[in-house]
Structures are given as structure tokens and as C-alpha cells.
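INTERNAL AUDIT FORM
Audit reference: QA-55
Scope: verify that the stored structure record matches its stored sequence.
Auditor: D.O.
Record contents follow.
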Amino acid sequence: MEIVKDNVEDLVNQKVKDLRDKKYSDKLVIYLAAPFFSDEQIALVDKVKEFLESIDNVIVYSPKDDGGVLKFDATQLERDTIFLENKMGIYFSNLIVALIDFKDIGTVFEEGYGCALDVPICAVSLNPPKDFKFNVMLANSLSCFARDLDVLKEFVLALVKFHKDTIHIADSYKINKEKFDKELEEYKLFSKNRTKYFNDQNEKLSKEYNDMIQMNEERFEELKKFRDDTVYNGSIE
């Protein structure tokens, strides 16, 4: 579906409702953070997503499949929409699984945003170099580091059990809904202000252009009058 001003809010709200309902079910919602810009990256994302979905009581949110893939010439509105959708995907997840072999800066951002929201993070590196070392900010944000899928599965299963044992649907839903509604209002204000800014800029440029045209027309009339006056006065022979 094409993203336009008239339907962007409905699109985002519907996806958020779906995510919220999933998070507060008895299933563990996993946000799969990873790049998908090459065939190799796409193959890994699909492999890990399929593996995670094979685990009972797990739902996977993948920006590649659930957020959408931006084209090179995507509009700012399309970029804003997918950015917000993916942020909400993190916000309403119970776990972030981050594929870090490609050192993707988008994945690093998603890890940082998740850490700020206290979402557990499991970094996965299936082909780590021998001298592999973590930056301290990333290392200290992790709840798990998996070098193979068996370790990942063990960690996910432990979280599934913890999630089912401790979830309090009503209270969590109320708290997070209030936080989300506030963030959505902030986003609406941001979009409104940005639109107003561009409209003001266009109006300003349009006025400057019209003023310039008017000034040139006035100057032309002055020159024409000067020419006519000098000819009729006999000043030019």
C-alpha cells in the first residue's frame, strides 16, 4: 500500500495494535535486528527468523518483513513511517535478537534503543573472527551472546518460561499504552511542525520571488519612462 498523509496514522496505529496484542499474549515477541542489504544478509535473516519461529510460543517481528524495505527514492513520509513502526516493534518486544556479524550501524542503533527501554538483548555471531572483541557499551548491554543457534535457543526457551510465569497483562498494557500514546502524540507534533516549516519556507520563497518580479517590473517602467522622457525632450540626438 502506498503511504500517503491520509493513511499513515491508520497504518501505524494498526501495526502498533497488532504488536501490543502480541506482546501481552502468552507468547514471547522477538525483534530481529539485522541488516538485509545483500543476498548474504537476507539469507541469514531468513534462516534465523525461521529458526526462531520453530520454537513454541515465539512471535518474530522482522523489520525486513514487517516494517518494509525502503527504496532509494523513498519519500520522507515513508521513511518516518517505517522508522516509527520499527521503533514500536522494539518498544513492544520482549527480546531483541541482534545479528552482528555485518557490523551494521542500524542494528547497533536498535540495540541501543532496546537497551534504553530495558529490553533484553541477545547478540548472535555465527562467524566471529578469532580476535573478536565487543565494545564495552555493547557488551554491557547484552543479556546473552550466542555463537551458535543452540545457545540462542536455550536462552529463548528460558525467556519464554519466564515470560509465561511473570506476565501481568492488565497492568503492563495500561502502563505501556500510556507511554506509547504520549510518544505517538510527540511524533504527530513533530510531523505537524515539520510540515508547517516547509510550508512557511515555500511561502517565504514565493513572496520573495513575487517581490523580485514586481521590483523588476517597476524598474523596467522607470527605465522606459526615462527613455521616453529623454527622447521627447530632445536630450538624445
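Auditor finding: record pair retrieved intact. Confidence is low (pLDDT under 50) at residues 1-5.
Action required: none
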